[in-house]
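G.,

No rush on this.
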Amino acid sequence: MGDFWVFGYGSLIWRPGFEFLEERKATLHGKHRALCVHSWVHRGTREQPGLVLGLDHGGSCHGIARLVSGKKRDVVIAYLRERELVTHVYLEKWLKVRLVSGEEVPALTYVVDRSHEQYAPPQALDGLAATVAAAVGKSGANRDYVLNTVESLNKLGIRDRLLEKLCGRL
């Protein structure tokens, strides 16, 4: 099989964990970045869930597309499944993203499953801040996850105003 793209919109931007040939800014239409997943493993626990990002319905999302060698396909997909499908709150999908060059390419993408018990519907900024500030999981503090994401987005010239406001509260 040939080379393929992986779309990152959160921690896959700042901690991809896999080898890639190149990366380009990209936009996914029809989904937006949202703190819509209760994290029971990486950034929280069942007793004190954190909030991590998912791609939810509507809008668009600016992120990074990374090109992976077809020779690494099985290894990278296995890694991503182990990382992203721990509790099956995400659905693995091949969705078209538009690269900064204007080219549209299919990319392996992880989208929130709104019917999953870990789906977190939209909430006010104060509620987001309280949840994020209190949660810690096996990968560390939920606060660090949000701060790392915003810092990485800013380095790419990508604005996420809600996450930026949340950082101001943390």
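When you get to it, here's the other one too:
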Amino acid sequence: MKIVDMDSVSISYNGETALDNISLEIDAGERIVILGPSGCGKTTILRLVAGFIAPDTGSISIAGEPVSRNRHIIKPPEQRGLGMVFQDLALWPHLSVTGNIEFGLKAKGFPKVERKRRIRRILNLVGMDGYAKRKPAELSGGQQQRVALARALAPEPKVLLMDEPLSSLDLELNVRLRKEILRLQEKLGFGLLYVTHDRDEAFDIASRVVFMKRGRIDDVRSIAFSRDKKG
């Protein structure tokens, strides 16, 4: 089943083409990694799928329902059933770990009992049970990443969008969290749309790698083929 379907999507900024006729499908449970240099259009794809911007032309559907088409947002971000982890994590510094996770659940209208259940479950899944009352400043970089993941996954999204979430971490922690993302994806079954400029990171995470160049899809490879070609 197609969870995300981008059909002939193009968008320009100030007369400059950011994406040119992009078509991309994500199946349920699939891990798509978009790989390419800065300015190639990777993050623009995430922003379009998330609903922060609309395509100039083309359409986007999620779980078979149109969400954007031809400069029109049909469904806003909060109605798309998506989770997102930003590059800067965007944790609320004045809220505890619980408060950060609960904030999004409140916004989506979950009742108090259900919020508590989901927070307990997701903190257990990301290994942060004992940190519920701590503030982000009291956590390590890796722990903050886990909180951002927990916040995005607590509403049980169909697709998790990740925008270079590990780029600020040292290599050892980066590799450890790649494995954590894979473990959570296998456990919870969400689709993954992940952006990076790091080739090794892409091949470790993806079931399919989409190579971007100057606003276009340059190549698409399955991970089985790609691993043989890492060189």
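Residues 225-231 have pLDDT under 50 and may be disordered. The longest helix spans residues 171-188.

Enjoy the weekend,
O.
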